[in-house]
Amino acid sequence: MVTVAEAQRMRSARENASVTRDLRDNLLMHLCAYPLGEAAPRSGLAELEVFARAVAAESPMWESELDDRVGRHMLDVAANITRETRAQGRWDMLLPLGAPSTNRWQAAMNVYTRVLSSRVVDGFLHPVVATEWLSTWPIPDAYDDSSIPGIRMIHCATALFSSWKYDRANREDSERQMTDMFCAGTWE
After folding, report:
1. Which of 67, 71, 76, 125 is spaced 20 to 30 Å from 61 by Cα?
2. Could you tell me the residue range of the domain that residue 114 belongs to?
């Protein structure tokens, strides 16, 4: 059980929130939904097409806002997105960002956990909230390979959230371990 005071402490303080950062992260999460079995095949494709049009309309602004490795990759892929190419564009976006992986599910899980990790590390999401989110994620037996970073993170999150949930006296230590896990799971 989480107290009201604990819940209040877990709220995000987003003073310098970036709209482009939110759009980037939301797009990646939408694109991951289909390969992770959470949505239909066209999920995220309309958003990808809109992203490409927005980038084309204001490319200097997007280039200055998304100036890290992930952002530059997304801008490169967006330059070739049309209604006809957007289905392939999903994989062009996710597979390089989701390496190493042996299949599309694992690549999407790597992207998904890296987005969550970067949001925790940058202060947009509390580590307990993100850890609980990951701790409930089902891993299909065929894809359960702990050498894959995203899968390893799910296993770690499951153990950490259980510890946090049942060992109230050591919650601060559990939260530090969660933060360490997310620091190790970012893009860089």
Report:
1. 125
2. 4-184
